[in-house]
Design brief:
This is Cytochrome B6. It comes from Alicyclobacillus ferrooxydans. Keywords: Membrane, Transmembrane, Transmembrane helix. The chain is built from 16 helices and two strands. The chain is mainly alpha-helical and 327 residues long. The chain folds into three domains: 30 residues; 168 residues, no CATH class; 33 residues, no CATH class. A hairpin with a 2-residue loop joins strand 1 and strand 2. The radius of gyration is 33 Å and the shape is elongated.
Length: 327
């Protein structure tokens, strides 16, 4: 009597030989890739490289464009500069950026108190008076005057600034019936201090034997017209390259191109809270990308687009041929 025996087939283990093999020279491909990338880098550097010029300094502005530097000092003395009306984190004179109830500037408050007339002009001259005492009476005359009188002096100088001359490096205003007060003497002392190359150091003014590390205050001195005109000459203003390029041998923050792009388009370009709006947009987009695998609908987009089939097209072509041959 024969008994039927059901035999269990052995498990089939596939090896590399069961799959199609293609010779591939990895070392050769690596050198080819390096060569192509190297040529592209050199071409892009030749076409899009930034000018290798030194950073803008007060000495450079005071020497090459003294009237622009004097106007900057007058704006600081009269409170007409951009920082005096900026608001937090420098002062409370400007309106903090808001996005509905969201206002990080208002929440943080004034963290770097700056009154431009004192920080950028008067305090450096007081430090300079230690080695040049002749400026002390001029500073005392300014400090003892009322704010109304100070404003009148500055306005009188600004009225005739375009008619002023530079004689032996000093500002000479035309003789008029207007009272200039001590402003011309302050401006000339400020010019000499800037041309000496130590204005930035006197602005930052370290209170210890160690040199100042925080350069925020001196960087804000030229951030309005001088820095803007300098950037325009180098084709590096916000509307051209902005923060993604910088002078010198080092690349700028090229990964921030998305920020720079947003500043150029509405509603960001027209908003008084552009900084907050841009940062909020980047934050939302980043969160969406981080949590994309967990968001229903959005996580199915790659599968719906079938991009993976384009990337792995050789595999799917092989599968189709394999199924066709087996049918």
């Amino acid at each position: 009597m024969l008994t039927e025996v059901n035999e269990v087939p052995a498990k089939i283990t596939k090896t590399n030989a069961d799959y199609p093999q293609t010779p591939y020279d990895l070392i050769r491909e690596m050198f080819i890739a390096l060569g192509v990338i190297g040529v592209l880098v050199l071409l892009c550097a030749a076409i899009f490289s930034t000018p290798d010029v030194p950073a803008l300094t007060a000495k450079q502005v005071a020497t090459q464009a003294p009237q622009l530097f004097i106007q900057t000092a007058l704006d600081d003395l009269s409170g007409q500069d951009a920082i005096s009306t900026y608001g937090p984190p420098y002062n409370t004179n400007g309106q903090a950026q808001t996005l509905g109830p969201i206002s990080p500037e208002a929440w943080a408050g004034v963290q770097i108190p700056i009154m431009s007339d004192e920080v950028e002009v008067l305090a450096p001259l007081r430090r300079y008076a230690v080695v040049n005492p002749s400026i002390t009476p001029t500073l005392n005359a300014w400090s003892s005057a009322s704010s109304k009188q100070q404003t009148a002096w500055v306005n009188n100088v600004e009225k005739y600034l375009d008619k002023a001359k530079l004689v032996n490096g000093s500002l000479v205003l035309p003789q008029t019936k207007l009272d200039y007060g001590p402003v011309p003497q302050i401006l000339n002392a400020y010019l000499r201090l800037a041309r000496s190359g130590i204005l930035e150091d006197t602005i930052d003014g370290s209170h210890s034997p160690m040199p100042a590390v925080n350069r925020t205050k001196s960087l804000l001195l030229l951030q309005d017209q001088p820095a803007g005109q300098y950037a325009q000459q180098l084709n590096m203003s916000g509307g051209q390259w902005g923060i993604i390029k910088e002078t010198g041998n080092y690349p700028g923050a090229v990964w921030l191109w998305f920020y720079t792009m947003l500043y150029q388009i509405p509603p960001y370009s027209n908003s008084s809270s552009a900084d907050l709006l841009v940062v909020s947009t980047i934050l939302v987009v980043t969160l969406i990308l981080v949590f994309l695998p967990f968001i229903p609908g959005l996580r199915a987009i790659p599968h719906a687009l079938k991009v993976y089939r384009l990337i792995w097209r050789n595999y799917y072509q092989y599968e189709r041929l394999h199924r066709r041959n087996n049918t």
